[in-house]
């Protein structure tokens, strides 16, 4: 099973078969409009503009599970992102990423990449916190703007914590784009 086996709803409640993204490198992100990480939309859009012609897509899934930081309707959220950050990548319907009502797509993503990519520059204290967090929360997503990187075959290749800025993930994206024959 891979990401192409899932169907989701877009911001207008239309069903989207993720197989339509077959052959693209994907960055799947759970987002929020009222989060300290919300300015990452700017970096996400910059990545999208830079690489979309090479087969790169961003799938934006708003999530209100973390302190209610994604209030509003799907349409309001999409409009906020477009007006404030100029986003042009696709926004999907608001979902849950953890718990009994977690969207099946995110259950799959977490199962394929149960831990956040280790930050090579993290200090000892940060690494202890990451370890405790994983022990307590398991595979659960810890906060908004967790990012899953998916290759052209629909396989999850990495998971990045919210603290990873989009530009810090770019080398991993470029590696997949180059490795898989697109320039």
Write structural notes for this entry.
The structure is a single chain. The chain is an alpha/beta fold and 183 residues long. It has a single domain, classed as Glutaredoxin (3-Layer(aba) Sandwich), CATH 3.40.30. The protein contains 5 helices and 7 strands; from the N terminus they run E-E-E-H-E-H-E-H-H-E-E-H. The strands form 2 sheets. It has a 5-stranded mixed sheet with strand order 5-4-3-6-7, sandwiched between helices. Strand 3, helix 1 and strand 4 form a beta-alpha-beta unit. Helix 1 packs parallel to helix 5. It is globular. Keywords: Oxidoreductase, Peroxidase.
Give a count of the beta strands, DSSP E runs of length 2 or more.
7
- Give the integer mean of the pLDDT values: 88
Based on Cα principal axes, name the global outline: globular
**What is the CATH third-level topology name?**
Glutaredoxin
Which assembly state applies to the chains in this document?
A: single chain
Low-confidence runs of at least 5 consecutive residues: 132-137
First CA to last CA: what distance?
28 Å
Beta-strand share of residues? 15-25%
Total tally of structural domains: 1
Could you name the CATH homologous superfamily?
Glutaredoxin
Supply the helix-strand structural class: alpha/beta
Strand order of the largest sheet: 5-4-3-6-7
Order of helices and strands: EEEHEHEHHEEH
CATH class: Alpha Beta
SSE inventory with pairings:
Blueprint: E1 7-9, E2 15-17, E3 25-31, H1 40-51, E4 56-62, H2 74-85, E5 90-91, H3 104-112, H4 124-137, E6 147-150, E7 156-160, H5 166-179
Parallel strand pairs: 3-4, 4-5
Antiparallel strand pairs: 1-2, 3-6, 6-7
Helix pairs in contact: 1-5
């Amino acid at each position: 099973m891979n990401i192409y086996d899932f169907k989701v709803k877009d911001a207008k409640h239309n069903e989207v078969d993720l197989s339509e993204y077959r052959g693209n490198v994907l960055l799947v992100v759970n987002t929020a409009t009222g989060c300290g990480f919300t300015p990452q939309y700017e970096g996400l859009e910059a990545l999208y503009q830079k690489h979309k012609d090479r087969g790169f897509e961003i799938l934006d899934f708003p999530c209100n599970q973390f302190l209610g930081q994604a209030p509003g309707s799907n349409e309001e959220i999409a409009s906020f992102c477009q007006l404030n950050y100029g986003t042009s990548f696709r926004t999907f319907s608001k979902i849950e990423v953890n718990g009994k009502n977690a969207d099946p797509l995110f259950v799959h993503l977490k199962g394929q990449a149960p831990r956040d990519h280790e930050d090579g520059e993290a200090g000892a204290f940060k690494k202890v916190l990451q370890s405790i967090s994983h022990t307590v929360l398991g595979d659960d997503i810890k906060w908004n703007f967790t990012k899953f990187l998916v290759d052209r075959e629909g396989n999850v290749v990495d998971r990045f914590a919210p603290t990873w800025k989009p530009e810090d993930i770019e080398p991993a994206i470029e590696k997949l784009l180059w490795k898989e024959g697109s320039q």
